[in-house]
Each structure stands twice: as structure tokens, then as C-alpha cells.
Specification:
The complex is a heterodimer of chains A (197) and B (468). Chain A is α/β, with parallel strands linked by helices and 197 residues long. Chain A is 32% helix and 16% strand. Chain B folds into three domains: 157 residues, Aconitase, domain 3, CATH 3.30.499; 89 residues, 3-Layer(aba) Sandwich (Aconitase, Domain 2); 175 residues, Aconitase, domain 3 (2-Layer Sandwich). In chain B, 32% of the residues lie in helices and 16% in strands. In chain B, helix 2 crosses helix 5, helix 6 runs parallel beside helix 8 and helix 13 packs parallel to helix 16. The chains are: A alpha/beta (197), B alpha/beta (468). Chain B: Pathway: Amino-acid biosynthesis; L-leucine biosynthesis; L-leucine from 3-methyl-2-oxobutanoate: step 2/4.
Chain lengths: 197, 468
């Protein structure tokens, strides 16, 4: 599926200061039964977000109206566990465009990038400060600039760089999709297969 | 040190690179693509929207495993959403000419159990599947890793995947394992030492005498759990144990082809002076039968040990640790032995093979299931189920109060009806103890099949060595 072009934006952020947020927390397996990619945002963080009687849990951050925005800020080792791309879909479908953490699990990171969701890796110290900024002022804004590979805490003025593979950066900025590229290689792949025989 | 020296991982990876993208990932050729009902439908949908066909259907193998019931597989699936996913897989496989081992087919089972048992998994291959436990197949000296659905679509479209080359890690375990210590315990021990993110960004090669001493099925258990350390996969160089296992299986090379492949497979190993990006060394003698107490697989201790006190943890680690123990209903410093257990689950791509059922059966033989225990015994495949029956294990199990169910992923991820009820404790031979993994509110303790057997007959966490 072609992805949306990633454009620079400013937004407040939603804090989730929990470590090792695994894919079963992002979207539990029982919600993976769809055969189409739609509506996964409704079940994002399902078991933290809703109580047993399916009413919203007021203690969970997504149910607290003071927090909003397109940036999710989470504790280290975000997205560990399953390969389910539904995790990236649900975060994107909910409305997030960026996840900030000090560490991401590999498969989640790939899945996010393949769906136009930008994983931003910052230092543990910078992450700690982000949580402090949001706690002090939930309306604090942050700027995400992919072109420059920068993330700025507009409240403190502190900017940090982040890494992204040059190829993936180009894909995100232009809304390119890997499959369009891969199908142009079919003849080359066929030749490669010949060489294996 | 020679600059030519390569790791086993490098050798296989480099031999599969079709093209290197400038300042980007490699275009990696995939030998075998395994698919199942949950992570494939959106990829098929995407392919159709582009007007594309599956490029190499002959290299694609399908089976429904994640959400299938483990009772009454002869009848239509009752749960409508599950049925629709399974039916969608069947329709997509027909449309794209893909070999499907559906429910009731003699080759049906968990995708990572049937690949090896059918001889589809072979040394030196690249193997992917939309499932993180694809790492299992690395036990044969192949590069095998889990992928997302966008990547499943890539492989459908081109038999290739765009992938940055991971770093290499060696995990060496030397020495002799104590009695009652299994491959599962090695895996849980390693993860408890390097954490659930210790392997992130890396591909592991397991080496050392303790690894060599493992059976093929033990090696699969170990490689299966590689992803729980954050690594994309884990591999073990093939040897006689590997070749012996593959020989004669359904899709294994035969005759002259076998000899040719065997010669090639024998060359598959890391060069002596190959350099790894990171290395760990462990002594097999330090490993006890392991059990987890928390909500990630790194939170494990020897069964005769105690839950850490958490006193030496930093603020954020401590917060996560406390949250985890609160979910489990445990306290810092608790001893694990004697904790009440309600459910026992034997199965999954981690421990759902014939050796696991033999070990469990041997342990419970002549004993009785504890009254407080509900036990779910779920074979990893139809072939495993048939073998259990053929060897007469069912009679021993029934005598001890256990019933066998039908194959599937079952309570490992509780997508089907097999859900551990809220607040109940399960000793499980599966791979993840995340919050809600085995059902909303379920509390999971990961362990080996013999630890699970000990819990099943005593009704509580018990050191299996007491009975050996």
C-alpha cells in the first residue's frame, strides 16, 4: 500500500513512560482477526485503555483529555515481541505519526517505517526530559523534521538528531513504497535464480 | 586475522543478495516463504490492488495455525471471524496456486513445526514468515526471521525482501548440562542474562559443546526463543545431527541431489577467525531449570531461586518491575517454589514437538494430574499428534488424567478459544509471558515441558529434579 508523504509538523505529545511495551499490549492477538487493514486504532492499547466492562479506563493516558497530538513518547524497548504489523497499523490509524523512544525492537521499527510511521530514537536522557516537559505542560509542542532528521522540544528549545536509513528516509518523504521498486527487479531476480541452479 | 574470514551468517546472507541499494538495505532473495491466516490476508489484498500475482508460488507454503480451534477440527470453525480468516487463506492459496496444508490435512500444523518435519527447512536457506518465531528454522543453519505484512507482500511480489544487514552476535555455551536442564532452560537463562533487548539489531549464532549436544528439536526450541532476546534470529551450524534429521523427510533432497546438497551443507560454518560484533560466553553448569516470574521472557530465575528484590534497580526499571509483579500477583523476593498453579499448557512452536510430549509423558507416567490443574496438551502438528498415538503415549497420558487436543498455536497467543482465565496462573511451555498474552488477565510462567509436568502433577511450582 502506498504510504502518505511525511511532512514536517508541530504537535503536542502523548506520554507512555513504560518500558518494554510489547506488541501484545499495543494490540492483543484477539483483535488480529480482520482480513482487511482498517479500524485497528479502536483497539490500540486495548487492555490498558478499557476496563473489563469495556468502559474507558480513566487512568490510561489515551483517555485523559489533557494529552493529545500526533507524537507518542514511550519508554525503552518499544514494540518488542510479535511481528504483527497490526501494531504499527493501530498506532497510525489512531492518529500518531511519530513514536519517540530510546530503543525500538527491530521488527516493529521496520513495520513502522513501511507504513509511514516514523520511529525516532533519542538518548535516554533526552527521553527523560521529554517526559518531564510533557508532565509539566501537556500542551507543550514538539517539532518533527525528517528532512533535517531533527526533533525539537519547543518548550526547552532542545533539538536532537536521529538516525534513519537514507533509503527509508527517501521513501517516507516521497511516499514511495518498496514493492514498486522490487517489481522492477524481477528480471534480475530470475537471473539470480538461474545462478543458484 | 584474515579479512576474508566470514561468519556463517555472512556466507548465507551474502550469497542471497540480489542487489545492494546505495546507502540503503540489501535486496535479499528468499528461498522459502511460509504463510499463515493472520498476517497474509492484507498482503494478498495489496498484491491484488496492484494487479500482481505471487511471483514464486512454488516457494511458498501455507497452513492455518494461529486461530484454529484445538477441538472439533473436523467440523466448520464455530468462531466466525476465525473461520473467515482461514477461508480467506484457502481462497488466496487457490487463486495464487500456493500449496496449502489445511485443517485435517496430514501435514497440517504450526508453521514452524511443519517446515522442519516436512524437510522444507534446509541448511543454507533464507526463510521468512509473517511470524516472529520464524527464528526456529535457524536451528538448521539457515537464515530465518519474522517479517511484517508489508514485507510478506514484498516477498509475494518479488521473492525478495528489502532488509538492512543485521550485526552478528555469538552466544557460546560450553560444558555439560545438569540433569533436568533442557534447551528451553538454556534459552530462558540466556535471555535472563542479556535481557529482552540484548540481541536487538543482531543475528545470533549459537556455538559451544552444550549447544552441539542438543537434539535437533532442542536446537529448534533454542533458536525459536532468539527473538525473545530482541535478536531477529538465531542459528546453529549444521552437523551430523542436522543431516540425520533431514534425511528421508518428505521434501528433503533424494538420491544424487542429496549427496550434492550434503556436500554443500557440510561447508556451512563460520570461519575460525571470523569476527562477531558481540560475543557472550556461558557455562552450561551455571544453568538450572528456569521459570519466569514476570511479564517478559527476560524475567526468569532458576526454579529454586527467588524473585529479585529490585533494590538495586534504577527508577524506571523499578517502575516496570513493580508493574509486572503487580500484574502477576507476586512480591519482590518471593521464592518461586510452591507457588500455586491453575493451568498447564504444553505446546506451541517452542515446545510442541514429539520430544516435548515424550518428556512430559515420561514424567507423568504412573502419577496423577493434580485436581486443581487444568491441562491443555496441544501437539504442534498432525504428524506430532499421530506419532504420540503411534508410540502409545496417549494411553499413559489418559491413565494419568490428561487429554490430547488437536494441533495449532492455541493458548500460546490465545487467538482461539484456548484462553487462560483472568487472574489464573499457567505454567506454559510457550514463548511469551506478556500481560494478557494467554488471555486477558492471564498470568503466565514460562518453563520447559518437564517443569510443566512437575507442576501438572503437584499443582504448584515444583523443581522437576526432585523426581528425576
Amino acid at each position: 500500500m502506498p504510504i502518505d508523504k511525511f511532512v514536517k509538523f508541530r504537535s503536542p505529545a502523548v506520554p507512555l513512560p513504560i518500558e518494554n511495551v510489547d506488541t501484545d499490549q499495543i494490540i492483543p492477538a484477539r483483535f488480529l482477526k480482520a482480513v482487511e487493514r482498517k479500524g485497528f486504532g479502536d483497539n490500540l492499547f486495548r487492555d490498558w485503555r478499557y476496563k473489563k466492562d469495556n468502559t474507558p479506563n480513566p487512568d490510561f493516558v489515551l483517555n485523559q483529555s489533557r494529552y493529545s497530538g500526533k507524537i507518542l513518547v514511550a519508554g525503552k524497548n518499544f514494540g518488542s515481541g510479535s511481528s504483527r504489523e497490526h501494531a504499527a497499523w493501530s498506532i497510525y490509524d489512531y492518529g500518531f505519526r511519530v513514536v519517540v523512544s530510546s530503543f525500538f525492537a527491530d521488527i516493529f521499527k521496520n513495520n513502522a517505517l513501511n507504513n509511514g510511521l516514523l520511529p525516532v530514537v533519542v538518548s535516554p536522557e533526552y527521553l527523560e526530559k521529554l517526559f518531564e516537559t510533557i508532565e509539566a505542560n501537556p500542551e507543550a509542542e514538539f517539532e518533527v523534521n525528517l528532512e533535517e532528521q531533527t526533533f525539537t522540544n519547543l518548550e526547552t528549545g532542545e533539538t536532537t538528531d536521529y538516525e534513519i536509513n537514507a533509503y527509508k528516509k527517501k521513501c517516507l518523504l516521497n511516499g514511495y513504497d518498496d514493492i514498486d521498486f522490487l517489481v522492477t527487479l524481477k528480471d534480475k531476480v530470475a537471473k539470480f535464480e538461474e545462478s543458484l541452479r | 586475522m584474515s579479512s576474508e574470514a566470514k561468519t556463517l551468517f555472512d556466507k548465507i546472507w551474502d550469497a542471497h543478495v540480489v542487489e545492494h541499494v546505495e546507502a540503503g538495505p540489501d535486496v535479499l532473495y528468499i528461498d522459502r516463504h511460509l504463510i499463515h491466516e493472520v498476517t497474509s490476508p492484507v498482503a494478498f489484498g495489496g498484491l491484488e490492488r496492484r494487479g500482481l500475482k505471487v511471483f514464486r508460488p512454488e516457494n511458498t507454503i501455507a497452513t492455518p495455525d494461529h486461530n484454529v480451534p484445538t477441538e472439533g477440527q473436523e467440523q466448520p470453525i464455530k468462531e466466525l471471524l476465525s473461520r473467515k480468516q482461514v477461508d480467506t487463506l484457502t481462497a488466496n492459496c487457490q487463486k495464487h496456486n500456493i500449496n496449502l496444508y489445511g485443517l485435517n490435512h496430514p501435514f497440517h500444523g504450526i508453521v514452524h513445526v511443519i517446515g522442519p518435519e516436512l524437510g522444507i527447512t534446509q541448511p543454507g536457506m533464507t526463510i521468512v514468515c509473517g511470524d516472529s518465531h520464524t527464528s526456529t528454522h535457524g536451528a538448521f543453519g539457515s537464515i530465518a526471521f519474522g517479517i511484517g505484512t508489508s514485507e510478506v507482500e514484498m516477498v509475494f511480489a518479488s521473492q525478495c525482501i528489502l532488509q538492512p544487514k543485521p550485526k552478528k552476535m555469538r552466544v557460546n555455551v560450553d560444558g555439560e548440562l545438569h540433569k533436568g536442564v533442557t534447551a528451553k532452560d538454556i534459552a530462558l537463562y540466556i535471555i535472563s542474562q542479556i535481557s529482552t533487548s540484548g540481541g536487538t539489531g543482531h543475528f545470533i549464532e549459537y556455538t559451544g559443546s552444550a549447544i552441539r549436544s542438543l537434539s535437533m528439536e532442542g536446537r529448534m526450541t533454542l533458536c525459536n526463543m532468539s527473538i525473545e532476546s530482541g535478536a531477529r534470529g538465531g542459528m546453529i551450524a549444521p552437523d551430523e545431527v542436522t543431516f540425520e534429521y533431514i534425511k528421508g523427510r518428505e521434501f528433503a533432497p533424494k538420491g544424487e541431489e542429496w549427496e550434492k546438497e550434503l556436500a554443500r551443507w557440510k561447508s556451512l560454518k563460520s570461519d575460525d577467525d571470523a569476527v562477531f560484533d558481540s560475543e557472550y560466553n556461558f557455562d552450561a553448569a551455571d544453568i538450572s531449570p528456569m521459570i519466569t516470574y514476570g511479564t517478559n521472557p527476560g524475567m526468569g530465575v532458576g526454579v529454586d531461586g527467588n524473585i529479585p528484590t529490585g533494590d538495586d534497580m534504577g527508577k524506571s526499571d523499578r517502575f516496570t518491575f513493580n508493574k509486572s509483579l503487580e500484574y502477576m500477583g507476586f512480591h519482590p523476593g518471593d521464592q518461586m517454589m510452591g507457588k500455586e498453579v491453575d493451568y498447564v499448557f504444553i505446546g506451541s512452536c517452542t515446545n510442541g514437538r514429539i520430544e516435548d510430549f515424550r518428556a512430559f509423558t515420561q514424567f507423568v507416567k504412573g502419577k496423577k494430574k493434580a485436581d486443581n490443574i487444568t491441562a491443555w496438551l496441544v501437539p504442534g502438528s498432525h504428524q506430532v499428534e499421530d506419532q504420540i498415538r503411534k508410540e502409545g503415549l496417549v494411553e499413559i497420558l489418559e491413565e494419568a488424567g490428561f487429554e490430547l487436543r488437536q494441533p495449532g498455536c492455541s493458548a500460546c497467543l490465545a487467538m482461539n478459544e484456548d484462553k487462560i482465565p483472568e487472574g489464573k496462573y499457567a505454567v506454559s511451555t510457550s514463548n511469551r509471558n506478556f500481560e494478557g498474552r494467554q488471555g486477558p488477565g492471564a498470568r503466565t510462567m514460562l518453563a520447559s515441558p518437564i517443569m510443566a509436568a512437575a507442576a501438572a502433577v503437584t499443582g504448584r511450582v515444583t523443581d522437576p529434579r526432585e523426581f528425576l
